Amino acid sequence: MAVKVEELLTADINQPARYLGNELGATHKPWDGALVRWVLTYPEVYEVGASNLGHIILYNILNAGPRQLCDRAYLPAPDLAAKLRSTKTPLFAVESRRSLTEFDILGFSLSYELGATNILEMLDLAGIPLTWQERATNPQNGQIPLIFAGGQTATSNPEPYADFFDFIALGDGEELLPEIGLILAEGKTNNLSREALLLDLAQIPGVYVPQFYDMAADGSVHPNRPQVPERILRRVATPIPAYSIGLVPYVQTVHDRLTVEIRRGCTRGCRFCQPGMLTRPARDVEPQQVVEAIEQGMQATGHSEFSLLSLSCSDYLALPAVGMEIKNRLKDKNISLSLPSQRVDRFDDNIADILGGTRQGGLTFAPEAGTQRMRDIVNKGLTNEELLRGVKTAVDRGWDKIKLYFMIGLPGETDFDVLGIAETVRWLHRECRIDGRRGLTFNLTISNFTPKPHTPFQWHSVSTAEFSRKQKLLKEEFRGMRGVKVNYTDVRISAMEDFVGRGDRRLAAVVRRAWELGAGMDAWWESLDQAYKAWTQAIDESGLTWKYRQVESGEWNLFEKEEGSSATDSVTDVTDVSPMEVGRSKKEEGREIKEDFPNSPDIPLSPSPSVPLSLDQALPWDHLDTGIDKNWLKIDLQKALEAATVPDCSFEGCSRCGVCGTDFGHNVVVDALPIPEFAGEFVPDTERKQRLRVWFGKVGDMALVGHLDLIRLFDRVVRRADLPISFTGGFHPNPRISLANALPLGVTSTGEIADFELTELIDIESFREKLAAKLPENIPIYKVESIDLKAPSANQLLEAAEYVITVAVGGSLTENGELDHENSAPVSVAPDANWEAWVKTIAETEAFWRVHTTKSGKTKDVNLRDRLHKLELVEQKPDSTSASSATSEGRAVLRFTGSCRSDGNLLKPEHIVFMLEQVSQQEIQLLQVERSQLILGYG
Q1: Which has more confidence, 673 or 530?
Q2: What is the maximum span of the chain, computed from C-alpha positions, in angstroms?
Q3: Does position 316 have pLDDT exceeding 90, yes or no?
Q4: Nearest Cα to Cα of residue 572 among 583, 561, 586
């Protein structure tokens, strides 16, 4: 049964268009025609989830399957979450508006160590038991959907979250999820039990079912039945750009553009980088597929910007050719290209040529370290000369703002290396200065190194005290340096990411308790102290404070020199320690550690600065087969100690990491292509040959789309309709589309006006048909007229507006289904309401004074009566819940015409309510508002 979403999305809900599910590209498949019904649930607010490329691709793939239906759900903002709880309404999927419990399977994206609390929030709002144990023992378990997770964090180390999911999807989902769908369809047809269905799913490579595995005392994980594999394989798929073309949200998202993947996987081998290890091998997309996807996608979506996505776009050798081909094809469309963080050593004139457009954005590079030695330790493969050449190229090509990413706390780092970050920035400033030009500005992000599973640096960490000390060093060094803005990652976030990211199944209790104490992901940014307090309290209550203190103290620091030895000797000694010696060392040291951490349980302790570490000891993620050989990680760690670099195996010899083979495939590299001749930048056509005035409506759920979002919608509609719109001039040309007046959010209208200026003459009916074909059905077009180009715009001519409003005398009768439009409160009506007399009194009164506050904060007295042109009673409605409903006239429909000028001389529906309250001396509630027409003064 569908949730009555329109009753939830009242005026007190911010950005209600997030929850409508009516975007361009949304797939509304018949409910009854589907055998398997999915919900892809993104545990972040809509603006983040709806622009996530993986979310879009998997949504499109699942809906392309026969008898498979895929809907979407997102983390509701706090205002809607509170309303869902107060009204006891379950969390719903946005397209079908059905409760999540009505679906067969819910898939969550888990891409951040601290993101699981948001997943628990969504499960709780949906009324779904939080753990697989609770779901398995629930009497209604046959009606509870299967809950699974995918994404980078889920693939890397799912153990801290294992209790919350029925299964984990490891690696790429393009082929894996359809295979899961086939098993689910077969299971439903055969009426399999939940456990039997999960056992079938466990036979699919890439599906990990935690309940079929147990954790040993050392944290390692092993099967508890013979029917499941010892190790679970990570899935690898080939990118398909066509599936990137999808949703076009009405609200502005964090990545408000078309995004197409050009390369999946990275083989650069940065030793701290988990994505670079977990996405191997590298797979380039055929250039023709990229070009066609972009060209078709821009036409289908109407976006004004597109992005080419990869972990390292610059390693896609065909990038300059592909970018130039697309730029040439779209040169008349005012389109811009953006790239994510890219390799500074590959940034050259060819890449500069394809970036930007008329809207040149910023550039982002990631040197990571401030000295050559540290860049070699992390295998960055970047020299000072290459760094300078890339930045100088950017400056020479007109960029004056560059973002740089650095990291502190890396293995083997000294204070000299830390201060080298500031020295590098100072050197770049000095070398890239150009006389007569605005100075170069750097925006720096200084992150704290956090060890990640499946990387050579997974065995190393740094204490929070050391992070704080190094940040202090940098702050002193940057003090007074001009043209630099520096942002630092809070050390508490880094410690918590490490604690959870490398944890085992014991952490499920911590994650759950942290959520109960209010540690949602949003809290980290809005109230870090509150979130940190919640997490630390959860750790204390779970008896794992001793473990967290180890993380805070730099649990595994392989690079600390012991007296009389070098750093290399230290690690060599550690590597030579046998598992038996490790156990003996733990036993010998256990008493001392337990005195420091009295809550420590009687299980083998994790290594600490005082306990020797064996690289052979079991890790909580060893049962996951990502393709990376653990022995290779040890060898690469040893090379890091020697500051030895390993070449990129996509372009040079094999590094023997273990990935390439039958299970994971091999690197697929597209060679560089000839670069097409540059056809020239977009030159905005500012010629104006025709102006068309359009009268349109904004009805139904489109009333919940805001004014700025409506402007963006018209821009995209004109692009999709391929109408010859004229542009403004200047550095940021915009289409000449002008709306007469902003309609308040939530107000419907049948009388809006917009002016369109065109570069060529077009038949009015043809224009109307093209425009209407691309507009949502709830934005109907009523009339189109040709207007003289020299005539004032509709906004300049606007004099008045006519509204039809429904009002009632206030109360608090909860049985009444109508809600107060202004205050979102249940309303009742007074049986003695005399609307006719009140309307007449207002008409006969000369003044209704009210204090008006301007945007600048100044106040002045305004006579609202001067702004009222006409007020009439259209209809009186009885209260259907009243015993005297035959005579009750407590609800009324009024029509009024009032000032609506661009100079701020406005009469709003709320002002009519104010006047009614003055004459009636009763509370008047505004139930419904519709703007029926805008009145232009042609003089």
Answers
A1: 673
A2: 100
A3: yes
A4: 561
Do 920 and 810 meet the contact criterion of CB atoms below 8 Å apart? Answer: no
Residue 250 DSSP SS3? coil
Q: How far apart are the first and last CA of the chain?
A: 55
Q: What is the mean pLDDT of residues 445-461?
A: 95
Q: How many CA atoms lie within 13 A of 270 on its CB side?
A: 25
**pLDDT at 549 exceeding the cut of 60:** yes
Instruction: Indicate the pairing of strand 859-863 with strand 849-853.
Output: antiparallel
- Find out whether 179 and 58 touch, Cβ atoms under 8 Å: no
Instruction: Please answer whether residues 617 and 586 qualify as being in contact, where contact means their C-beta atoms are separated by less than 8 angstroms.
Output: no
Residue with tokens 């990275």: 266
pLDDT in tens, 144-157: 999 999 999 999 99
Please tell me the distance from the alpha carbon of residue 590 to that of residue 608, in angstroms, as a whole number. 11
Helix, strand, coil % in the chain, rounded to nearest 5: 35, 20, 45
Cα dist. 713→140, 325, 774 in Å?
Answer: 44, 27, 10
- Segment (H or E) for 514: helix 508-516
The listed range with the strongest mean pLDDT (109-123, 678-692, 879-893) is 109-123
The amino acid present at 840, given as its one-letter code, is: K
Q: What angle do CA 113, 117, 122 make, to 5 degrees?
A: 130
Look at 493 and 74; give whichever has higher pLDDT.
74
- Distance between CA atoms of residues 897 and 935, nearest Å: 9
pLDDT in tens, 252-270: 999 999 999 999 999 999 9
Residue 356: its pLDDT value, please?
65
Q: Which residues pair with 875 in a beta bridge?
A: 893
Rounded to whole angstroms, how far apart are CA atoms 894 and 892? 6
Collapsed DSSP state (helix, strand, coil) of residue 870 = strand
Question: Of the candidates 148, 118, 119, 116, which has an alpha carbon nearest to the alpha carbon of residue 132?
Answer: 148
Share of the chain above pLDDT 90, in %: 76
Encoding tokens for residue 480? 């007074």
Structure confidence at residue 449 (pLDDT): 95
Q: b/e string for 508-520 if b means 16 or more Cβ within 10 A?
A: bbbbbbbbebebb
What does the block give as tokens for 610?
């005082």
pLDDT tens column, 759-778: 999 999 999 999 999 999 99
- Tokens, residue 679: 């056809």
Residue 562 tokens read as: 């012991």
Q: What is the mean pLDDT of residues 42-48?
A: 95
Return the residue matching tokens 């409003």: 805
Backbone torsions φ then ψ of 462, nearest 5 degrees: -125, 145
Write down the mean pLDDT value for the chain.
88
Length of the chain: 939
**Contact 246/293 with Cβ under 8 angstroms?**
no
Task: Answer whether 107's CB lies under 8 Å from 489's CB.
Answer: no
Residues 438, 429: Cα–Cα separation, whole Å? 12
What does residue 258 show for φ and ψ, rounded to 5 degrees?
A: -80, 130
Mean pLDDT of 780-807: 96
**CA-based R_g, the chain, Å:** 31
Rounded CA separation 152/174 (Å)? 15
Residues 777-789 have a mean pLDDT of 97
The Cα 122–Cα 76 span in angstroms is 8
- Roughly what angle, to the nearest 10 degrees, separates helices 508-516 and 528-541? 130
Does the bond joining 281 to the residue before it have cis omega, within 30 degrees of 0? Answer: yes
Q: Is residue 409 a contact partner of residue 470, using CB atoms and an 8 Å limit?
A: yes
